[in-house]
Every structure is written in structure tokens, then in C-alpha cells.
Amino acid sequence: MLLASTARSVSVAAGLSRRAASSIATKYSKAVFGAALAKSPATLNKVAAELASVSNAIKTQPEVSSFITNPTLSLQERQKGLNTLLVKVEGSGKKEQLTDVTKNLLALLSENGRLAETEGVIEGFNELLAEHKGELTVTVTSAAPLPKDTLTRLESTLKQSQTAQKAKVLKITNKVNPSVLGGLIVDFGDKTVDLSVSSRVTKLNNVLTQSV
């Protein structure tokens, strides 16, 4: 199977850096997206809905979050917990069974001891889905909410980039993170631009001109 053969190849030793872990999640994301797309557009949409339910369960149910992030569980314990999670996800929908694509993904994450990557995998899948639909989501992270005029200027600059011009829809969201002291971080597509407050718009324009 496409998903199985691709995802199994990323089972590696523990103790990797956060960057490496992100790379692992990306490989799983690409594998599950490719497997779903290869079946049919309907399957792709169904898998997207199922993964959204999984993500919601992780964020809203402490026992699920604890299970996903517990690195000390044995394979048998992970399998038991996974069965419980599948029941919860199936029960939150229209009593339809989950697709084999979603089941295989979760089973492989469990088997390879990578359940902690689940949210990253889902995030990556959603990015691929948005790209497939011609959507480009830009996340602007700042220490405090940005003024509307600043977001408007950023949007105008981004619309001039090749990446944005290829997209059918451009969405900009402002994420607040107090730890980003005086900085500004702009994530779009597979690019990240880290800017200082004093020159954020100028630097963004320069980076887009040079590398997009």
C-alpha cells in the first residue's frame, strides 16, 4: 500500500531534534495525503473530516491528549489506547466507519512509536489539502494583536509574490504569542520569514522578491 510503504520508511530512532521530528511528520502527511488522493476526491474529503475529528479529540479530551503524548506506553498499551480513540472518533460522526487510510495512518504512528507526531501530521495534511484546493494560508505570529492596517500592508506585499499569485484564495491569520517579544514571524507555504518590528514590512518585501 502507498501509505504503508511510504510511512514505514520514516520509523527512526528516538531522540531526534524538533526539526527532524517535523520532517518525520511531513513524510507521514505526504503519505496519507497521497494515499487518500489516489483513491478519490470523496475519500480525500472524508479523510480530512476524520483527521479533523482526531485533532479535536486530542485538543478537547485530556485522556486522549495524555495517551497521544505518553512515550512510555508499550506497543500493546498503544494498540489498546488506539482502539479506544478510533471508537471515540467514529462515535463523533455519523456512525460511519473510518476509512482504511485514516486507520492505517494511526496504526503506523502507533506501531512506529510516533503517536506524538499526530497533530503535526494532521497540520501538514491540512496544508497539502489547502494547496491542492488552491488556498494559501498565511500565519502572522506577533507578541500582541497586529493593527488592521499592518495586516493589510502585509497582505498587499504577499499578493505580489509568485506563491500567492498561484493561489486562488489568500487567507491571513494573526496568531498571538507573547514569547515573540518584539519580533514578527510570517509562515506561508513552506517558507518562514522572521522579521524585526522596525523593519518587518521592508524585509518581508525583500525576502519575497529574492526567494519566492
Features:
disordered N terminus, alpha+beta, Peroxidase, domain 1, globular, 4-stranded mixed β-sheet, 212 residues
Blueprint of the fold:
Elements: H1 2-8, H2 18-39, H3 41-60, H4 62-69, H5 75-91, H6 100-111, H7 118-132, E1 135-142, H8 148-159, H9 162-166, E2 169-176, E3 183-188, E4 191-196, H10 200-211
Parallel strand pairs: 1-2
Antiparallel strand pairs: 1-3, 3-4
Helix pairs in contact: 1-2, 1-6, 2-3, 2-7, 3-4, 3-5, 3-7, 5-6, 8-10
Describe the structure.
A hairpin with a 2-residue loop joins strand 3 (183-188) and strand 4. The chain is α+β, with helices and mostly antiparallel strands. Helix 1 (2-8) packs parallel to helix 6, helix 2 (18-39) runs antiparallel to helix 3 and helix 3 (41-60) packs across helix 4. Residues 1-21 have low confidence and may be disordered. The protein has 2 domains: 23-131, N-terminal domain of the delta subunit of the F1F0-ATP synthase (Peroxidase, domain 1, Orthogonal Bundle); 134-210. It has helices at 2-8, 18-39, 41-60, 62-69, 75-91, 100-111, 118-132, 148-159, 162-166, 200-211, and strands at residues 135-142, 169-176, 183-188, 191-196. Helices cover 61% and strands 13% of the residues. GO terms for molecular function: proton-transporting ATP synthase activity, rotational mechanism. InterPro entries: ATP_synth_OSCP/delta_N_sf, ATPase_OSCP/dsu. It comes from Coprinopsis cinerea (strain Okayama-7 / 130 / ATCC MYA-4618 / FGSC 9003). Belongs to the ATPase delta chain family.
